[in-house]
Amino acid sequence: MIVTVTPQPLSGKIPAIASKSYAHRLLIAAALSESPAHVSCRTRSEDIDATCRVLRGLGARVTQGNAGDADIIPIDRNHSPRLPEVDCGESGTTLRYLIPVAAALGCGAKFICRGRLPSRPVEPLAGELKRHGIRLTTLPGEGFVVEGKLAPGAYSLPGNVSSQFIGGLLYALAILDGTSTLAITEGFESEPYVRMTLEVLEAAGVEIREEKRPEGLPVWTVIGRGKLHAGPELVVEGDWSNAAFWLAAGALAGDEGKSVEVTGIRRNSLQGDRAVAEILARFGAQILQTESAAGAAPGSLRGIEIDAAQIPDLVPILAVVAGAASGTTRFTNAGRLRIKESDRLKSTSALLTLLGVPHEEEPAGLVVHGLGSARAFRGGDIDGFGDHRIVMAAAVAAASGGAPVRISGAEAFRKSYPKFLEDFAELGGLCSAE
Ligand SMILES: O=C(O)C1=C[C@@H](OP(=O)(O)O)[C@@H](O)[C@H](O)C1
Ligand SMILES: C=C(OP(=O)(O)O)C(=O)O
Q1: Whose CA is nearest to atom 8 of ligand 1?
Q2: Is the pTM for the entire model greater than 0.90?
Q3: Which atom of ligand 2 is nearest to the CA of 91?
Q4: Which ipTM did the prediction report?
Q5: Predicted pLDDT at 214
Q6: Which ligand is nearest to the CA of 164?
Q7: pLDDT digits (tens, 9 = 90+) for 87-100
Q8: Average pLDDT over the chain, rounded to whole?
Q9: Residues forming the annotated binding site for 3-phosphoshikimate?
Q10: How confident is the model at residue 365 (pLDDT cuts 50, 70, 90)?
Q11: Handedness of CA 53, 54, 57, 58 (dihedral sign)
């Protein structure tokens, strides 16, 4: 799909879509519980569908409504399929959470991966599972086969590759019979994602104790009792990571009186990406927040320092804001962006180049020399790099920019936000798709 966006700053009010991260976690918790559950979720996306599909393959009965809600009858371990073939699509969270879960269930699985997912890392999770008796075979360009039954024990993982290894292993340890420990050996990035997982597991009755090692890194003791108790009714809250695109659009809206408000996002959410409100305010945007909504309006934007270690998914859209600010914005600790749906430092750099924003791409960072106004953005043709967050960042940049932008491979937005173009139009955005 090619989407052409004509400049027209966005303005208005839009409800947030459901949090993709919470949807994955609650669906998995329901499938591993002792009794059926209804998951209220107002969004269906390719990634959420992938988790539902893999859970079905592992033996859960998952019925999804068109709007996103799901009814789940949990996996019956006495009738688990042996080595099912399951399709993760391009969802890293689905793959990295459900590899250890399949190992804990003992059914194993052949995980099929699409797009860039086969080459996104599963190490060091794979090595740690192997150390505990699991056979994990890589099918180059295709996926992974997991066989064997995980046992309780002492596990450790570095925290600076992907938090999804840690979160997935926590689910696995919670459904074993016995006590395990999981220690973080170095770094701890994307920590908010692990905090969300701990919240969901604890709400599902899992006893988890956290201690700090002398270096300040956590070690968790997880009391595995075979099953979770997620309860009959689970609600997925609004998504800050995707709300960030609309809030950035509000900050870039330029014209007097324009602003964007996103409703249904909790101020006290554990989602790390709620930091977008504070970061836009630091840039100089006008931010208004209530307990359950956030709004952004233009201000005089200035370059700032942004540590991306805990908020990797915000970088592409914040780089666009940096491009419109005056002065230099420096993104640090952003190395993990290279292992997302695209090499996001490279693809964000390509977007900035198209927009005419001077910048330097560093091994683990980005330095952006802003033009002082989004209206100074140039237009032209850009590839979406198969990456939803690049496509959405390009569309928001173009809406506030000075010339039309043609985005090819734009269908990538369906990974997290299938209604993106409708909501873009709802906020007054001008775009056409061919
Ligand atoms: O667990 C999650 O829901 C996610 C964790 C993050 O990945 P990393 O932990 O690999 O940084 C984030 O980038 C991804 O979009 C969603
Ligand atoms: C990186 C992302 O997701 P995942 O790792 O689940 O593929 C994302 O949504 O930006």
Answers
A1: 162
A2: yes
A3: 7
A4: 0.99
A5: 84
A6: 1
A7: 999 999 999 999 99
A8: 97
A9: 20-21, 25, 162-164, 190, 313, 340
A10: very high
A11: negative
How many of the other CB atoms lie within 10 Å of CB of 186? 12
381 is catalytic: no
Confirm or reject: Cβ of 240 under 6 Å from ligand 1.
no
What CATH number should be reported for the domain whose range is 20-232?
3.65.10.10
Q: What residues are designated binding site?
A: 20-21, 25, 92, 120, 162-164, 190, 313, 340, 344, 389, 415
CA angle 392, 424, 259 (to 5 degrees): 100
Q: Which residue spans of the chain are classified as CATH 3.65.10.10?
A: 2-17+238-433, 20-232
389 within ligand 2 shell (Cβ under 6 A): yes
CB atoms within 10 A of CB 342: 24
Integer Cα distance of 320 and 352 in angstroms: 7
C-alpha separations of 335 from 86, 205, 238, 384 in Å? 30, 35, 27, 20
370: nearest Cα among 315, 301, 285: 301
Q: What is the CATH number of domain 2-17+238-433?
A: 3.65.10.10
Catalytic residue among 313, 383, 387, 423: 313
